[in-house]
Write a structure and sequence with these properties.
Strand order of the largest sheet: 1-2-3
Number of helices: 5
Low-confidence stretches: none
Largest sheet: 3 strands, antiparallel
CATH class of one domain: Alpha Beta
Strand content: 5-15%
Shape: elongated
Radius of gyration: 28 Å
CATH topology of one domain: Double Stranded RNA Binding Domain
Length: 133
Amino acid sequence: METDKIVSELNFKAVRSSGAGGQNVNKVSSKVVLTFDLNASRALSEEEKELLAAKLASKLSSENILILNCDEDRSQLRNKDSVIKRFLELITKSLQVPKKRKATKIPRSVIEKRIKAKRTLSEIKQNRRKPEL
């Protein structure tokens, strides 16, 4: 994955932010909307695209477009930087293939300890019974 190529394929749109902020909210377009077209990307291989489509299925639109918003700051530039950072973290995290789990054998001592505990509990319960006459 080449981050420079991917960042060059990103599309940004500045929108007026919602919420508190007084008159600044009504005047300044500080919210940044990032869009990334997964199908049209040249920076990713076909295998990487398939992996991302599978892992990010809930975040992608029906046309395989990833949309991220950021309106945390009052500055458009800082919002743009933070949304790019979040996007790159999301992509790198999604491209990591988890290791396969190796099944381990249960140690003999653990098995013996469990059987001994069952035996002692059984003896305790047998001692609670009424004696047979």
